Amino acid sequence: MFRPAEIFIGLRYTVARRSNHFISFNSLISMLGIAIGVTALITVLSVMNGFEKELRERILGVVSHVTVLHGPEGLPDWQAMRTRLQQYPHVQGAAPYIHRQAMLSQAGNVSGSQIRGIDPSFEHQVSSLHEHMLDGQIESLQSGEFGIILGSELAYSLGVSRGDSVMLVSPQTSITAVGILPRLRRFTVVGIFEIDMREYDSGLALIHIDDAARLFRMADHVSGIRLKLDDLYSAPMLSDELVDSLPFGYQVGDWTRQHGNFFRAVQMEKTVMFAILILIIAVAAFNLVSTLVIMVADKQSDIAILRTMGFSPGRVMRIFVVQGFVIGVIGTMLGVLGGIGLAQNIDTLVPALEKLLGMRFLSPDVYYISELPSDMRWSDIQKIASWALILSLLATLYPAWRAARIQPAAALRYE
Predict the structure, then answer these.
(1) CA–CA–CA angle 358, 132, 142 (5° rounding)
(2) Last residue of one domain, picked from the residues 200, 226, 258
(3) How many Cβ atoms from other residues are within 10 Å of residue 231's Cβ?
(4) Staple partner for 311: which of 100, 190, 315, 400, CB 3.0–4.6 Å?
(5) Same domain (yes/no): 198, 96
(6) What is the pLDDT of residues 225-261, one digit of tens each?
(7) Is 6 helix (H, G, I), strand (E, B) or coil?
C-alpha cells in the first residue's frame, strides 16, 4: 500500500530541480516520447475510423442492410410481404426492387451494367442515392416514360448526359419473324448520380420498377425487398430471425455477408496499425527504464539514508514506481490532449499543410476519398491511454527493484 511518504518523495524526485541535468533531460524525453506515441496512435486510429465510416456509408447508401429474395422467378404479392417485414424490430424502411444485368449502348459506346428497377416513392427509405445526385432527381423516374439514371462514370463511358437517350439490350430474347432477337428498349437519361465508389458509379443504372417489370417480363413480381434498419449491426440477427420465420423458398441476405470480408480486412488493418504504433509508446517506456536506472544510481546515498530511517525495500521500491508513473501519466495526458486536438482538426490542418507544401496528399484523380476523414472514438482513447499507463508502470518495476536491493552500508561507505 502506498503511504504519503513514498508519494511525496517520488513526486519530489520528479518535479524538483536536479543537479544532474542529464537525468532531467532523459525524463523530459521519456515524457515527450509517450506523448508523441499516444498522439500518433489516437490520430491514426481516428483517421482509419473515418475512412471505415465513410466507406460504410457510401456502400450502404446503395446496398441495403437486409435483402429478402424468392428464387429466380421473383417475389409474388410483394405488397403484403413488405407490410409484414415492416413489423419486425429495427426495420425503418422497406422497398421493392428488380435486379437484372443488361448492356447499354450509345453511338458505338457499349458498357455492361447492373440494372435496378426501383419505386421512387419507397427508395428514399432504404438508400441515400437521392443525396448523391449530380443532375436530376430520383423522382424523375416515372412509370411508362422509360427514364434511366446512370452512375457518373457509366454516363461518361457512354458519352451521355441528362436528356440524351441510351439503348438498353436485355439478355432475354424475343421470337420474331426474322428469328430470335434480344429485347431492346430506348431509355432517356433523366439523372446522374455519383457515390464515389467505382463499383457503383461505373456499373449501376436505375429505372422505374414498372418499366423493369415490362422489360424483363416480371409481370407483378419483383426480385426482392430491401430493408433499412435503425442499427446496421443488428442485420445478422434480423436475417437469422427472418430465415426462421419466413415460408420455405425465401432467401435472406445482409450487408455483412455481401461486404463482410472488406470490413473485416479494414478491421484487421486497424488492429495491425495499433500494434505497430504502440511500439512508439513501448520505446518511450524503455527510455523511461534507462532514466530511472540512472536516477537510482544517482540517489544511492538518499536511498541508503531512507533505509537507515526504517524504510523497507518495498517502500523504497514504491518511491521510484511513483516517479516513473507520474512521468507516464503526464506524458499520456499530453498525448491524449494532442491526439484529440489533432483528430478533431485534421480536416483543416491537412488542407493548410497541402497549401503550404503546394501538393495534394490524396489526389482526387487517384483516390475516391480525397479528404482525410476523422472519426474519433472515446473507446479508442481509453484503450490507448490504458496501454500507455500500463507500459509506463511496467517500465518502473526493474529500476524500482534495483533501488530496493541497495544495501545502506555499501552505499554510504564512501560518503
Answers:
(1) 150
(2) 258
(3) 12
(4) 315
(5) yes
(6) 999 888 878 888 888 888 888 888 888 888 887 777 7
(7) helix
pLDDT, tens digit (0-9, with 9 covering 90-100), for 87-110: 888 888 899 999 888 889 888 888
Q: Given the C-alpha cell 511500439, which residue does it identify? A: 279
Q: Are residues 48 and 73 in the same domain?
A: no
Helix (H), strand (E) at residue 80: helix 78-85
- State the amino acid at position 134 in one-letter form: L
Q: What pTM was computed for the model?
A: 0.71
Q: Which amino acid is at 22?
A: F
Please give the Cα distance from 221 to 227 (Å, whole number). Answer: 17
Domain boundary among 258, 285, 309: 258
Residues 76 and 110 in one domain: yes
All three cell numbers of 43, joined, read 490520430
The set of residues, in sequence order, having a beta carbon less than 8 Å from that of 198 and lying 6+ positions away, is 153, 368
Let me know if 29 is exposed, middle or buried by CB neighbors in 10 A (0-12, 13-18, 19+): middle
Cα radius of gyration rounded to whole Å, the chain = 33
- CA distances to 17, 75, 198, 300, 410 from 304, in Å: 21, 86, 71, 6, 9
Cell of 223: 426480385
Main-chain phi, psi angles of 196, to 5 degrees: 70, 30
DSSP designation for 129 = G
> How many domains does the chain fold into?
2
| Cβ contact 381:46 at 8 Å | no
Give CA–CA dist 150/131, Å, rounded. Answer: 14
Grid coordinates of 144: 411508362
Element (H, E) at 69: strand 66-69
Euclidean distance between CA atoms 55 and 131, whole angstroms: 15
Of 310, 315, 297, nearest to 6 (Cα)? Answer: 315
Task: Retrieve residue 47's grid coordinates.
Answer: 483517421
Tens digits of residue pLDDT in 106-138: 888 888 889 999 999 888 888 888 888 888 888
Amino acid 274 reads: F
What the block records as the C-alpha cell of 126 is 432504404
240 shares its domain with 274: no
The per-residue DSSP string of 131-153 comes to GGEEEE-GGG--TTS-EEEEEHH
C-alpha cell at 324: 516513473
Q: Domain limits at 357? A: 4-58+262-411
**84, HSE (Cβ side, Cα atoms, 13 Å):** 11
Contact 377, 41 (CB under 8 A): no
169 and 268 part of one domain: no
